[in-house]
Amino acid sequence: MIDAFEALDIKTVVLEAIEDHKEQYVKLNLEQLYQGLNPEGEKITPEYVQGPYRRKKARMNTQPGEGTPDFYLTGGMYDQTHAQVDEEKIEIKSDVEYAQYNEQRWGDAEIWGLDPDNHEEFVQETIQPLILEKISEQTGMT
Question: N or C: fewer beta carbons within 10 Å in the chain?
Fold first, then answer.
């Protein structure tokens, strides 16, 4: 048993768990965006400018409130959003061409990342059980 613990690479276990469930991370981020919330759990700013587009968006999705961006018009940005995991971070990006303009205007930090509640849900309900399962498998402990 001691040999199994010595051979255990926790960092690799954690990275594998995150990689295995990065789609859940993206899903939580997109649900949060649809509500108009940034990674701090606050309304995304700056708001859309006054005018027809702002009113149209408010009618399409009432959750964020009029003027608060949700980055959802046709669904393209959401459909083409994915995550990459490396040893430092989870990076979320969308492959639609106009995503770069949203990121320039609002900033990556205003769009991508989980708010505290979603982060806790991802860690506690998704990643932690998987890490414990992987450690149990590798060490033979149940």
Answer: C
